[in-house]
Structure formats: C-alpha cells, structure tokens
Amino acid sequence: MPSVPKTTSPDKPGTSPANRSLERGVEILRAFRPGSDLLGNGELAERTGLSRATVSRLTQTLVGMGMLQQEPLRKGYRLAPAVLSLAHAMRSGSGILQVAAPLMRTLAETKHINVGLAAPDRDEMVYLESIRYSRRVAFRNVVSGQRVPMELTSLGRAYLATTSLTRRKVLYEVFRARRGAQWPSLLAEIEGAIRDVHGSGYCVASWQPEVVALAAPIATTKGTYSLNVSVSTGDTAESVVEALAAPLLELRREITKAWSRRAEA
Fold first, then answer.
1. Any bridge partners for residue 18, and if so which?
2. pLDDT per residue over 201-230, tens digit each?
3. CA distances for 53 relative to 23, 41, 44, 60, angstroms
4. How far apart are CA 136 and CA 194, in angstroms?
5. Is 73:217 a contact under the CB 8 Å cutoff?
6. Would you report the helix, strand and coil content of the chain in percent, each value rounded to 5?
C-alpha cells in the first residue's frame, strides 16, 4: 500500500510554540509503520514534511523522553518499548473493547469466522481487535493495531457511510491522489457500499484474494467504529453474505445494547 500522504496541519493562529512542538513530535512517531522500523532524520523529514533541523531536534527530545531509541551505527531511530505500553494502556482501558470483545469471540468460535473491530484514523482504519477463527488459513494475519486502507475495505466503507458529505469529500481527494487511474471505478464501489449500508445496514468487500468481508458501523457516545466478519473461502460473495449478514447485524445489536447498558450504569 502506498504511504499515507503527509497530513501535517499548518500552524493555527494562537497556537503556542509548545503545542506546535507537541504536534510535530507526534508526527515523528506516526511516521513509523510496519516495514520501516528504523528511520533516519532524512526519511523522517520526507515523511512528515518537516525540515531536517526540526526533525533532528525532535528526535533527540523523543529519545530523551524514552519514546525513540537511537541506533548510532545505522544512523537511525526506532520506536521504544514505552510506545507499546501506551498501546496496551489504550486497549485495557477501552470501554468499547470491554463490551465488544467477548461477544465477538463467541460469534467467531461459533461460526468459525474472523471478527474484527476497527476505528478510523485520518484516512485509514485501525484494528482495535481481530479474532481469527476462519476454517481456511489466509496468507494475511491481522492483529490489533494493524492499519488497513479505508477506501478498499468493508470496514472503511462502512465508516464512510456515517461521515458528513463535507468530510467525505476531503477523504475522497486523498483517495483520488493515492489511487490515480483506479479512482473512478473505486469511487463507484464506495458509493455503492454507502448505499448498501444505508439500505441494509452493512456492506461487502473482497479486496484480498479469496477473502470476503462484511462490515457494519457502530455509533456510540465515544465515536463511530466499524465491525466486520470475514472468511477465507472459495465460495461466492453472495453465499457468504447469505450466511453472515444476519449474524453480523445481530452482533452489532448485541454490542449496541451492551454499550447502552454500560453507559446507563
């Protein structure tokens, strides 16, 4: 998948230098992706749009704070263990995961399917939980924290169906720049998926070979998430939909009810 376009925001009037430094420091951390565990100042500058001088200052600060580790011989930086502890704190403190994960596991074990829950982050979706019980082994192993393209996946398209037209247009421009000549046909697929969500409550996508996924949005007081079920199969998408659409929608109802009870408690 192509790298995500630079998304650093211009400085806002009234924003303090300290806040700008914080924003830029976060952009440095965001630049690290799977497959790029070691990055030098030049690569970080290219990925963030920041100057090399600014990047050099920020990486040293992040090393001092324990967020990055420096590799002097290889002239680069990698994420430090403290970053992983932040992810663990997020997962253990997530109310939606506490509610959804047991219900997701029950469905995955009962139907021998994969069940996932994801949240939007800019122009991608991030898995919060992924429970894998599909009978067939897929070449792709999905884990918590993994990012997937918003525009290609059922998770992303289900989320797009919940966004405002203004927000959607902004995201469409990002997708168009990323996909080039593929964008017109991809746009038609996304718009069709949005209609399906509005009409049936879910959408379908098969962006990986022999993997069919259905997804439905879940709106909570803490934000909007996407819930999906998928299987690795040689069967048609129609047969997968017939088998899994009702269980997906029922799981969404169960999660929504459990969340409402938690919010009222």
1. none
2. 999 999 888 899 999 999 998 899 999 999
3. 16, 9, 11, 11
4. 29
5. no
6. 50, 20, 30
